[in-house]
Amino acid sequence: MIPAERADLEIEQRVLEDLAQQAVRLALARGATDAECTIAQGDEFNVTVRMGQVESLKEAGSRGTGIRVLIGKRSGSSYTSDLSPDGIRRMVSAALEVAEITSEDPYTGLPDVSELGYIERDLELYHEDVAALSTEEKIARARQAEAAALDADARINNSEGASFDSYVGLRVFANSRGFVHSYRTSNCSLSAVPVAQQNGAMERDYWMTTARSAARLESPEYVGRRAAERVLRRLGARKIPTQKAPVIFEPRVARSLIDHVFDAVNGGAVYRGASFLAGKLGQKVAADHVTLIDDGTIPTLLGTSPCDDEGVPSRRSVVIENGVLSSYLLNTYSARRLGLRTTGNASRGLSGNTGVGHGTLYLEAGPAASEDIIRSVHQGLYVTELIGFGVNTVTGDYSRGAVGLWIENGEFAYPVSEVTIAGSLQEILLGIEAIGSDLEFRGALASPTLLIREMTISGR
Amino acid sequence: MKFSDCFFARTFAVTERDLERYLAEAMSAGGDYADLYFEYLATTSIVMDESIVKSASQGTTLGVGVRVISGERTGYAYSDDLSPEKILKAAKVAACIASGPSKVQKTGFEEAGRRDLYPLLTAPTDASLSERVALVKRADKAAREADPRIFLVQTAYADSLRHILIATSDGKISFDTQPMTRLSVYAFARQGDGKPQSAHAGGGGRVGLEFFEEKTPEYFAREAVRQAIVQLDATEAPAGEMTVVLGPGWPGILLHEAVGHGLEADFNRKGISAFSNRIGERVTSPLCTIVDDGTLKNRRGSINVDDEGNATQRNVLIEKGVLRGYLQDKLSSTLLRTRPSGNGRRENYQHIPMPRMTNTFMLPGESDPEEIIRSVPRGLYCVSFGGGQVDITSGNFVFTASESYLIEDGRLTRPVRGATLIGNGPEALKYVSMVGNDLKLDEGVGVCGKEGQSVPVGVGIPTIKIDRMTVGGTAQ
Lengths: 460, 476
Description:
heterodimer; A: alpha+beta; PmbA/TldD fold; about 25% helix; globular; B: about 475 residues; 7-stranded mixed beta sheet
């Protein structure tokens, strides 16, 4: 990027910071006792190639702003896509109007001034190579990824396509306690979804690489080949008899377990008592070798940010330490409800209330090679995909559709589909018998391979 | 309606000449077809939690999407600024999908026939905020008073009003104003120091507040409480294949997952659906006739026109077990040389439309629902569900029962905990052996997700008996 463009970007950033502060000042002038405003701006690009041809191409920029106002202990919020002075005025009026119908809530309010701040060192969240990548190059990468999948095996004779997506965005936060900060992010991803056929049955699978810099993406050939390997090993799947057996979650599906634990340590669920982990701080909730960390500060990762969406610096929190629940993830409100301090995990879009989010939430790697974990299983299921929403983080009840590979004497024997795996999140966490060494940060959730002692597999 | 009377002409001074200019720019690189989708959306939401009105929000978004189709290719761009320069720029970006000489542009627009599937006494957005907040307060009170074991209640009210204008390069223009209202109640129950249990009930549609005079906040509150209390006594769900009876209404989500998605024309055109190339084949028991109908009055899944400007209609998907048709949008119907079926939908102006369901349901049969349960020696009776999901290509689908009972010797004996049911789309409904005479549509809370886009939908089903289905519980 040439310096003039970079200067333009900085000017734009200052202009939007000013706009957010103006909205906050306007709210105070109109009777709010406190206010916080956020602006999001971004440019999205998507191209999908299917059977070698561009199928769709989308390119656009958009922006929007949201405000939350407090009138004493009442709060209201509003948002708009209209950033003109009139649009901002209407947004502020709408937020003040709805604040009138809300109740007094003694715990509501902005973070204490002492909590506000942001990480000043460069977290490498914005890479110029994403915006600089030409449309032709993006199309070429998608085309190469799909071709690599289609060329891998004659049984791969169709495709849902391959896509290249990119996004560059700016996020601005300002509040009436003097906080203002903005930061740019970039990310891009490349994925391929081949379809394979054998004896009249069809299967699809995918591989995807995501990064904040185009230079860090896996190569198109690698993406295509991985997707091809995955779809081929699903062909000829059988339904197995109903039984109890050990279950291995490969890293991609183990991430979903981390997500369920997140829902259960989310301060919003915890203070309401609507989580199976509520009231369990300091208690053993997982096997002894399980350590779960939330870290919003690791440079370049997708879960990283200089501050949370209330203007509190991001940080590293140990959620489960050697099997013991050591911290919930909290925003200002849920922290006050629980008599704790915020962990810098506030999350909000443009509309509505502030919730809780995570940074990079990951389960620490263990000592075992994933091959050795598979070899250690006499008979069990290696899960490669899960579908459905049969997880209740209030009770911990767990029941989902699964696809995978059956293990006989430590070796993959044949593919399995149309079965469910069931148990409870409590038993799953306590039943983690082995943890792989294969931890990779491919998104904001990460886990190595996990072996669960026993789950109920329902099939024939 | 005169163009000058439409919302976008009145509010944003859009003229027919503007639309012609934007479409000409969209067709400047030789596309086969282009359309413009103007959208203005106003929303309100109110959340009551722990018996206080904890948050309330209202907001607006405005934008226009420009689409260009060239053969099988689609170019898309959008702008959240209605200035002519920004829309022309979006049109230019979308036009790049084609490569050829500019197409001659039709001038003038013809409005498609109008109808009104959602006549309202008062648009929800015209009611006072205090009337709307009263609904969540009534639901909260009723839920807390319904049972002493309820320890937490969350109620939420949301409404929206969407104005759309669609103009196409073949000279068609459509307008619609789409209201939507929804009330939700979450009830959490606990017995002594036992595990908490939760349940959800709610309803709404393209309705005004008068809807809640019949389906009252108290009705939804008591329903959520009833389900949460039932769960307190629930035991492990069974695991394995067994007879499953689905109750009427919301369990119609089975059809949405097992059949509906697999019949969307985009997947079939590409040959990646388990239902591809199977029109005319028997895919369910002859007792099953399944339709998708976007024309039902005031239903959540209904629309006067789809998001491509085509009128919705009643589409028979499966007739007495035989696959009859797919759900079409503009692109797929053109490529398949058939007609759009009014199923081209999109989440908002930032998205490309694609074939989607509206209200999907099975027509009633002849069996008495009680007789259906009496006919089962051992099985599972499911009356309420959470979400579902399907793998279009293999046809495998799941849906998760949130309230179900064991059937033993033709009688409901005890409630069991939530469990996922799994089956294969073109196979599962071949085992339907009885269909009840009690068709019911859901209460109006369904949201369908596809490729990152959410749209409101409805489902419905009479009581049905499926002789064989895999239930994913933990009790063997």
